[in-house]
Design brief:
The chain has a domain of 94 residues: 3-Layer(aba) Sandwich (Rossmann fold), CATH 3.40.50. The protein is built from nine helices and eight strands. The longest helix is centred in the C-terminal third of the chain and has 15 residues. The structure holds BIS(adenosine)-5'-pentaphosphate (AP5). BIS(adenosine)-5'-pentaphosphate binds next to helix 1, helix 2, helix 3, helix 6 and strand 6.
């Protein structure tokens, strides 16, 4: 399948958790704007430092910064046959800019109600070496890696509420935008990680 896939959904919906399965099935590289921004923060670049203020406050980073990052990433060789976007686009202007530089063939939307999101995000832990995602209750990490687990600075209850507000105000309208273009596939994300994975696989096999 040519073209790119967008993995869409609220913060903590399980986009990062499910992305690996889609990468395996499609061979398309995962392009996560959240991961790219966290890498820039870690490097301490001026862009990273400016983005950090928005991220820590649970606000979206300005569109022009994100669009610049994506334009640069899509120049790389592995992006020629399309990619799996994770966490991008997140505003209508981002989607409009993407339309000018790449073809989106489908948008997989993982739907999770707000009341399930807070528990997922506050309990998230990440392996600082591999980036693997765990949850203290829903997907506990193996005991042998417990000393390298980290919690993202924006994974506090207070910041999650701001992230959800930003999602509803700026990102959720994109579901209609993509639905009007016949590209939106909805997945029930309010189920176990494995069940959601099965639904994601079924959706991907329909579009391959
Ligand atoms: P980003 O990193 O993209 O964060 P997000 O969209 O808020 O998404 P998350 O990474 O929090 O969640 P996820 O859906 O990947 O869930 P996960 O699989 O980890 O963005 C961070 C910030 O960067 C933004 O706030 C913004 O400031 C900025 N930014 C990024 N992209 C931007 C853009 N395009 N424009 C502007 N700003 C941008 O799962 C969450 C937890 O739940 C885990 O612990 C997991 O184990 C658990 N879990 C997963 N699935 C299930 C399940 N089915 N049942 C129970 N638990 C589950």
């Amino acid at each position: 399948m040519t073209g790119s896939i967008v993995l869409f959904g609220p913060p903590g919906a399980g986009k990062g958790t499910q992305a690996g399965r889609i990468v395996e099935l499609t061979g398309k590289p995962q392009v996560s704007t959240g991961d790219m921004l966290r890498a820039a923060v870690k490097l301490g670049s001026p862009m990273g430092m400016a983005a950090k203020e928005f991220m820590d406050a649970g606000l979206l980073v300005p569109d022009e910064v994100i669009i610049g990052l994506i334009q640069e990433r899509l120049q790389e060789d592995d992006a020629k046959q399309g990619v799996l976007f994770d966490g991008f686009p997140r505003t209508i202007p981002q989607a409009e800019s993407l339309d000018k530089i790449a073809t989106v063939s489908s948008v997989i939307s993982i739907e999770v109600p707000d009341d399930a999101i807070v528990e997922r995000i506050v309990g998230r832990r990440m392996d600082s070496e591999t980036g693997d995602i765990y949850h203290v209750k829903f997907n506990p990490a193996p005991a042998e890696i417990s000393d390298r687990l980290i919690q993202r600075p924006d994974d506090t209850e207070e910041t999650v509420r701001s992230r959800l507000e930003a999602y509803h105000a700026q990102t959720a309208p994109l579901a209609d935008w993509y639905s009007e273009r016949g590209l939106l596939i909805k997945i029930d994300g309010n189920a176990s990680i494995n069940k959601v994975g099965d639904s994601v696989e079924a959706a991907v096999s329909r579009i391959l």
